[in-house]
C-alpha cells in the first residue's frame, strides 16, 4: 500500500498543462520528432541554472563555505583558496562538482574604486543571482546593510549568515571554564545581530543563521536550516536542481533526492521506449543508444546520491574509511562489479524488477495510441529505472551508516 501511495504522489510532477503540450506535439509532429522533443524537455529540466552570490569582507569564511557547500576541502581539485586575506577584486565563479549549472559566486566587497555603490549592481550583474548570502563575523558593516537594502529593493532573497560560531564557542569556553553556557552565548549573538539589523530595517523574516563553515560542522547550529531555507526560496525547477546537487547527505536528504528522481522516471521511461527499449530484455536486440542512456541515468543517480567515484574518494580521504569498502556498498547492491551498463546487466536488472508492489501509472495517453509493444517497453523501462534507483538509494544509506556520527544526521 505504501508503494501505491508513493507512485500516486509521483504523478503530480507531470501537470495537466504539460500533458496537453506533450500530446498536442505528438499529434502535430508524429513519432520521430516527438522523441527529439522529449529528449529536449528532459535536458531543459536538467540544465536549469542556479546562481548563488556569496558576499562579505575577507575573513568571514566565504571561501570555506564555498568549499563546504560543494562537499570539498581546501585540498580538493576546484576548491576555493582558504586562509587568504586578499580582497576579492572580481566576481569569482565556482562550479558545483556534480552539476556545472549550479554555481557559487564570491563577489567583491562594496566600496572599492571599481566596485562602488554607484556601479556595484551593474558591475556584479546583481539581478542574475537567485539569492544572496551576506557573511559577517563579529559585526554588521554599513556595506552589509546597503547590500541587504538593495536586495530588498530588487525583491531578491538574501540571508544574513553569522560565521565562526565554533570559534566563538571555543573561545568563550576557554575564557569561562566554570560558567560557560553555549546556548546562552548563541542567544546573545543571535539577539545582538537581530537588534542591529532591525535598527537598520534589514532584519530578514527568516532570522540570522549561525554557522561554522567547516565541513565537519554541517550538522551543527543553523547550517542545515540555511540549506533548507535556501531551497525553499527557489522556484520548483531550480529547487530540484539544487537539492540534487547537495553533497552533505543525511537520511532525509537522500530520501528527498530519490523522490525527485522518481518523479522523473515517467519521462525517462517514455524516452527509452521511443529510443527502442526492448521489453524482453534480449541483449542482442537492445540498441547501444538505449544502453548508453541507461548508463548515463545510473551515473546521474550515483552523483546525486554521493556514490560517484570522486565523492567516495573524498569521503575516504576525509574519514579514513577504505575506498574499496565504500565502493563495495554500491557494487554489491547493484550486483555490478564494474558499474557499467551492458546487455547482460540490463537482463539481470530487469529480471529483478518485476515487483508487483511497484505500480506504473501511465505517463501519457499517447502510449495507448501507439502499440501494445510500445506500452510494454515503457512499463519495462520504468520498472528497470525504478529498480536501479532503489538499489542505489539503499547503497547511499549504507555508505552514510559507515560515516562517523559527526558526518551525518539521523532521521
UniProtKB/TrEMBL annotation:
Residues 48-233 form the IRG-type G domain. Keywords: GTP-binding, Hydrolase, Nucleotide-binding. One of its GO terms (molecular function) is hydrolase activity. GO terms for cellular component: membrane. Belongs to the TRAFAC class dynamin-like GTPase superfamily. IRG family. PANTHER family: INTERFERON-INDUCIBLE GTPASE, INTERFERON-INDUCIBLE GTPASE 5. This is T-cell-specific guanine nucleotide triphosphate-binding protein 1-like. It comes from Lingula anatina (Brachiopod).
Amino acid at each position: 500500500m505504501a508503494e501505491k501511495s508513493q507512485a500516486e504522489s509521483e504523478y503530480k510532477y507531470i501537470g495537466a498543462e504539460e500533458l496537453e503540450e506533450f500530446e498536442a506535439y505528438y499529434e502535430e509532429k508524429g513519432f520521430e520528432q516527438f522523441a527529439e522533443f522529449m529528449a529536449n524537455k528532459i535536458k531543459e529540466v536538467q540544465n536549469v541554472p542556479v546562481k548563488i552570490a556569496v558576499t562579505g569582507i575577507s575573513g568571514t569564511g566565504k571561501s570555506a563555505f564555498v568549499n563546504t557547500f560543494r562537499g570539498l576541502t581546501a585540498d580538493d581539485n576546484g576548491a576555493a583558496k582558504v586562509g587568504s586575506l586578499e580582497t576579492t577584486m572580481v566576481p569569482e565563479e565556482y562550479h558545483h562538482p556534480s552539476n556545472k549549472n549550479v554555481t557559487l559566486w564570491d563577489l567583491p566587497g562594496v566600496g572599492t574604486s571599481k566596485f562602488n555603490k554607484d556601479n556595484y549592481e551593474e558591475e556584479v550583474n546583481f539581478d542574475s543571482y537567485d539569492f544572496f548570502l551576506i557573511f559577517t563575523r563579529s559585526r554588521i558593516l554599513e556595506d552589509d546593510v546597503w547590500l541587504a537594502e538593495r536586495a530588498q529593493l530588487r525583491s531578491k532573497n538574501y540571508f544574513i549568515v553569522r560565521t565562526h560560531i565554533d570559534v566563538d564557542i571555543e573561545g568563550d569556553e576557554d575564557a569561562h571554564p566554570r560558567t560557560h553556557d553555549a546556548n546562552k552565548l548563541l542567544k546573545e549573538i543571535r539577539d545582538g545581530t537581530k537588534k542591529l539589523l532591525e535598527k537598520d530595517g534589514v532584519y530578514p523574516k527568516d532570522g540570522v543563521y549561525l554557522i561554522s563553515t567547516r565541513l565537519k560542522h554541517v550538522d551543527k547550529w543553523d547550517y542545515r536550516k540555511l540549506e533548507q531555507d535556501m531551497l525553499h526560496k527557489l522556484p520548483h525547477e531550480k529547487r530540484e536542481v539544487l537539492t540534487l546537487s547537495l553533497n552533505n547527505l543525511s537520511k532525509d536528504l537522500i530520501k528527498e533526492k530519490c523522490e525527485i528522481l522518481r518523479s522523473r522516471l515517467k519521462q525517462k521511461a517514455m524516452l527509452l521506449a521511443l529510443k527502442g527499449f526492448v521489453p524482453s530484455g534480449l541483449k542482442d536486440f537492445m540498441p547501444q543508444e538505449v544502453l548508453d542512456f541507461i548508463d548515463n541515468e545510473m551515473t546521474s543517480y550515483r552523483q546525486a546520491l554521493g556514490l560517484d567515484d570522486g565523492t567516495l574518494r573524498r569521503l575516504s580521504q576525509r574519514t579514513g574509511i577504505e575506498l574499496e569498502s565504500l565502493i563495495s556498498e554500491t557494487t554489491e547492491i547493484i550486483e555490478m562489479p564494474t558499474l557499467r551498463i551492458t546487455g547482460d546487466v540490463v537482463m539481470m536488472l530487469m529480471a529483478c524488477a518485476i515487483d508487483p508492489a511497484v505500480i506504473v501509472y501511465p505517463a501519457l495517453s499517447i502510449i495507448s495510441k501507439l502499440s501494445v509493444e510500445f506500452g510494454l517497453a515503457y512499463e519495462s523501462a520504468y520498472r528497470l529505472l525504478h529498480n536501479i534507483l532503489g538499489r542505489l538509494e539503499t547503497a547511499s544509506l549504507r555508505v552514510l551508516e559507515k560515516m562517523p556520527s559527526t558526518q551525518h544526521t539521523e532521521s
